[in-house]
Amino acid sequence: MTSFDDLRPFEMGFPGELRDTLTAAVLSGAKTTTTGLLKGYETEGEPVPRAGERVVLVDSDEQPLVVLEITDVRVLRLAEVDLRHALDEGEGFASVAEWRSAHEGFWQSEQLREWLGDPDFTVDDDTLVVAERFRIVREAA
Fold first, then answer.
1. Which of 15, 70, 103, 104 is the most buried (most CB within 10 A)?
2. Residue 124, phi-psi category: left (phi > 0), alpha (psi -120 to 50), beta (remainder)
């Protein structure tokens, strides 16, 4: 088996049902974008990804699934997320409003607030998000 120690793990959501659903969407080819909070990168002390970077998508057990290449990264206000990005998240959203509602629910969840260390965290139009586009470049196994 190939070692992926030199690649940053790419985790979608928290381990469990959500991560399993999101990684399945990536593996099927339906999900080619994702969105995270800039505050999340700051909380983790992680740099914002950059186009051309390769990462390894991991499952809920932290096992490598595929190598992804980040093809585009935009840091923008939540209000600026466009329909193409929302559709390409591959989660069945039909509109930006639908996409935003689902993401706000996650970003304002107790679990995420605890992870951020901010029990009162909320998002609004001016919240900065990191919108990434990626493609699968190699199977992990």
1. 103
2. beta
